[in-house]
C-alpha cells in the first residue's frame, strides 16, 4: 500500500525537507517521515551544490536542478543565488537549448501553462484553473518557440525557455516564483524531426500563420491583461517577423516587453555607452554596421538609432547611419526578399551602385562605410576575419567591435584575435563568456553582453513602478544603469559588469527604471523611498515562518476525497509557476 505524503511536502514553495525542526514536524504530522537530523538552509545548499557538481554533463546538471526545483524552490533559488555565475549557463543559455531538444523524451512533469491553437477557447480556462487572484501575478513569459536561441523551431518544447527565463528573473531580481507564470503557445512546428517523432508532445502540424495566428495572439493578450492587469507580459523567442509585428501592434496598448528585440538592443546600447566614454565621441557621429539582420540585429539597430535621435539627429538621418548586412549581403531597397522590419534600413540602390557587381558582402561594406562600430548577430562563425577587422581599424582609432552571436561555435570572432589584429586598440564585448586576454602587457577583461544584466532589473522596476507600459526612456535608463556599474576607462577594463553579482546589479537597474517611468509619466506608483521599495519587492530564498494555514491543512485533512482535492488544487497552481 502506498505511503501518503503530507501535502506540505508536496508543494515546492512550502516544502523544506530536512530543515523542518522537531517541533514543526510534530505540529505538521511529519513525525517519522524524515531522517532525524535537522539541517539548516546553508547545509542543504552545500549538499545540493555537491550533488550538482558530481553530475557528468551540463545537461545532467540541468536535470538535477530541475528535480530540485520540483521539490524545494527555496533551496533551488538559494543555490542559484549563491552560485549564479556558474549555474546561469546551466539553467539558461546554452544548456537550456539541449534540454529543449530533449524535452519530449526527458519529460517528467508539467511546469507552465500550455496553450494550443487547436483550442483557443481553452485559453481563459487554462489561466482560471490556476485560481490566482488578479493581484497575484507580476509576470508572464510566453514563447511560441519559433526562433529558440540559436537552435531554431522547437514547438511546444520551447516551454523550457519560458521556465528558464523566469528562473533568471527570480535569481537575479528577486521576483517571487509563485507570482510568475511560464507560458508556451503551441501553434505547430516546421521542425520535421519533431513532427516525425512518435514521442513529440506538441500539436502535429506545421506552424499556423496569418489571421488565425494573429487572432490567437490577440486573444492571449486580451485574456491575460484582463485576468492579471498588473502583470508584465514578456515575449521570448518568437520568429523575427512576428516578434516585431506583435510589439509594434500592441506595445502601446499593453505592458509588454520583447527581450530579443528590446533587451538585446538595450544591453548592446549599455556596452556602447561604456565604449563612447573611452572614445569621447557622441552617439550622433557613429557609423554602425550590423552583420545579421534578424530580430536581434534589427533590435540593436533600433536602440542605436534612437540613441542618435536623442543626441540630436532627426530620425531619418539616424536611420541612415546604420547599415545592415545579412545573408543576401548589404540590404538594399528593391530586394525581393527584404522583410518589412528590415526595410527602413535598406540603402538606396543609387547610393551603392558602384560598390560591387551584384551582392555587396561584409568586407565591401566595411571598406565603403568606414564604420566606427561593427556588431555581429549573424551566428556565422569567423565572419569578422582579419581582412574585415583590419579594413575597419585602418580608419578608426578605437574600433568598437561586438561579436555577439552564441554559442561559442557561432561567434563572429574571438577577442584575442580582435586585439591582435587591431594592435590592442579594439573595444569589445561578446555574447559568450570569455576568459581574460593578455595582450601588450595588459590583462583585458572581456565583458559579456548578457541580457541577464538588464532584463531582470528592467522587469522589477516596471513592476515596482506599476508602469502602464514600457517606454524608450525606461530602456535607456536600464542601459545607462548597467554601463554605470563599470569604469571602462581603466586599461583592460570590461565594457560591462560581470554576471556574478546580478542581484545588486538588478536592484540598481530597477531603481533607474522606476525613475524613468515616473519621468515618462507612465508610473502608477511613486514610492517615497525608492531604493527601499525595490529592496522590499525582492523575494529572498529563505524559509519563512510557517503559516497557520500550513498547519491547519495538515491537522485537519478530511479523508481521501478532501485530501485529493487539496492536492489537485495545489498542483494546479504550482504547475503554472
What does this structure look like?
The chain is an alpha/beta fold. The chain has helices at residues 22-27, 41-53, 58-71, 73-82, 84-91, 95-101, 103-106, 122-128, 159-173, 192-195, 211-227, 240-250, 259-279, 295-310, 315-320, 349-352, 362-369, 386-393, 415-421, 455-465, 472-483, 502-519, 530-537, 548-555, 559-575, and strands spanning 113-116, 139-143, 180-186, 232-235, 256-258, 288-291, 322-326, 329-330, 373-376, 400-403, 427-430, 437-439, 442-444, 447-448. The strands form 3 sheets. Strands 8-7-6-9-10-11-14 form a 7-stranded mixed β-sheet, sandwiched between helices. Strands 1-3-2-4-5 form a 5-stranded parallel β-sheet, with helices on both faces. Helix 2 packs antiparallel against helix 3 and helix 13 (259-279) crosses helix 21. The protein is globular and about 80 Å long. The relative contact order is 0.11.
What are the key terms here?
9% strand; disordered C terminus; seven-stranded mixed beta sheet; 577 residues
Globular, elongated, flat, extended or rod-shaped: what is the shape? globular
Q: With helices defined by DSSP (H or I, 4 residues minimum), what is the helix count? A: 25
Q: Which stretches are poorly predicted, pLDDT < 50 over at least 5 residues?
A: 556-577
State which percent range the strand residues make up: 5-15%
Radius of gyration: 25 Å
Give the distance, in angstroms, between the N- and C-terminal Cα atoms. 31 Å
Largest sheet: 7 strands, mixed
Helix content: 40-55%
> What is the arithmetic mean of pLDDT?
92
The helix/strand class is alpha/beta
Strand order of the largest sheet: 8-7-6-9-10-11-14
What oligomerization state is this entry in? single chain
Number of strands: 14
Amino acid at each position: 500500500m502506498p505511503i501518503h505524503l503530507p501535502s506540505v511536502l508536496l508543494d515546492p514553495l512550502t516544502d523544506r525537507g530536512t530543515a523542518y525542526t522537531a517541533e514543526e514536524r510534530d505540529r505538521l504530522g511529519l513525525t517519522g517521515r524524515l531522517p532525524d537530523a535537522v539541517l539548516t538552509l546553508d547545509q542543504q545548499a552545500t549538499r545540493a551544490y555537491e550533488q550538482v557538481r558530481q553530475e557528468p554533463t551540463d545537461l545532467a546538471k540541468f536535470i538535477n536542478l530541475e528535480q530540485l526545483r520540483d521539490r524545494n524552490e527555496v533551496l533551488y533559488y538559494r543555490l542559484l543565488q549563491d552560485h549564479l555565475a556558474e549555474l546561469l549557463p546551466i539553467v539558461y543559455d546554452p544548456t537550456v537549448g539541449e534540454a529543449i531538444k530533449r524535452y519530449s523524451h526527458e519529460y517528467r512533469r508539467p511546469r507552465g501553462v500550455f496553450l494550443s491553437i487547436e483550442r483557443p477557447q481553452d485559453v481563459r480556462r487554462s489561466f482560471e484553473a490556476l485560481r490566482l487572484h488578479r493581484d497575484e501575478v507580476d509576470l508572464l513569459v510566453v514563447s511560441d518557440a519559433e526562433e529558440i536561441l540559436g537552435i531554431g523551431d522547437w514547438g511546444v518544447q520551447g516551454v523550457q525557455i519560458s521556465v528558464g527565463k523566469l528562473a533568471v528573473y527570480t535569481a537575479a531580481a528577486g521576483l517571487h516564483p509563485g507570482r510568475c507564470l511560464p507560458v508556451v503557445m503551441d501553434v505547430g512546428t516546421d521542425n520535421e524531426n519533431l513532427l516525425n517523432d512518435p514521442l513529440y508532445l506538441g500539436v502535429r502540424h506545421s506552424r499556423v500563420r496569418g489571421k488565425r495566428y494573429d487572432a490567437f495572439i490577440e486573444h492571449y493578450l486580451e485574456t491575460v491583461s484582463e485576468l492579471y492587469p498588473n502583470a508584465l507580459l514578456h515575449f521570448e523567442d518568437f520568429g523575427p517577423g512576428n516578434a516585431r509585428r506583435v510589439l509594434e501592434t500592441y506595445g502601446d496598448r499593453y505592458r509588454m516587453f520583447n527581450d530579443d528585440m528590446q533587451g538585446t538592443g538595450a544591453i548592446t546600447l549599455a556596452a556602447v555607452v561604456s565604449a563612447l566614454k573611452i572614445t569621447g565621441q557622441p552617439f550622433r557621429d557613429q557609423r554602425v554596421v550590423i552583420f545579421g539582420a534578424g530580430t536581434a540585429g534589427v533590435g540593436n539597430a533600433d536602440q542605436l538609432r534612437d540613441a542618435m535621435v536623442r543626441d540630436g539627429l532627426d530620425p531619418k538621418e539616424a536611420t541612415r547611419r546604420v547599415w545592415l548586412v545579412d545573408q543576401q549581403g548589404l540590404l538594399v531597397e528593391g530586394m525581393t526578399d527584404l522583410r518589412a522590419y528590415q526595410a527602413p534600413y535598406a540603402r538606396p540602390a543609387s547610393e551603392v551602385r558602384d560598390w560591387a557587381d551584384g551582392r555587396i558582402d561584409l568586407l565591401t561594406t566595411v571598406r565603403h562605410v568606414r564604420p566606427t562600430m561593427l556588431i555581429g548577430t549573424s551566428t556565422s562563425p569567423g565572419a569578422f576575419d582579419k581582412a574585415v577587422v583590419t579594413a575597419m581599424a585602418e580608419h578608426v582609432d578605437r574600433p568598437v567591435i561586438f561579436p555577439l552571436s552564441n554559442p561559442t561555435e557561432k561567434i563572429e570572432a574571438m577577442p584575442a584575435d580582435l586585439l591582435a589584429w587591431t594592435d590592442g586598440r579594439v573595444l569589445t564585448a561578446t555574447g559568450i563568456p570569455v576568459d581574460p586576454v593578455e595582450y601588450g602587457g595588459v590583462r583585458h577583461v572581456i565583458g559579456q553582453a548578457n541580457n541577464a544584466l538588464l532584463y531582470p532589473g528592467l522587469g522589477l522596476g516596471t513592476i515596482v513602478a506599476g508602469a502602464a507600459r514600457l517606454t524608450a526612456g525606461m530602456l535607456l535608463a536600464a542601459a545607462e544603469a548597467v554601463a554605470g556599474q563599470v569604469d571602462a576607462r581603466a586599461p583592460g577594463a570590461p565594457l560591462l559588469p560581470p554576471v556574478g553579482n546580478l542581484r545588486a546589479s538588478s536592484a540598481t537597474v530597477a531603481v533607474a527604471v522606476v525613475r524613468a517611468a515616473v519621468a515618462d509619466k507612465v508610473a502608477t506608483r511613486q514610492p517615497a523611498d525608492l531604493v527601499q521599495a525595490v529592496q522590499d519587492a525582492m523575494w529572498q530564498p529563505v524559509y519563512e515562518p510557517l503559516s497557520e494555514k500550513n498547519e491547519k491543512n495538515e491537522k485537519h485533512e478530511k479523508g481521501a476525497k478532501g485530501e485529493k482535492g487539496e492536492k489537485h488544487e495545489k498542483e494546479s497552481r504550482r504547475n503554472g509557476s
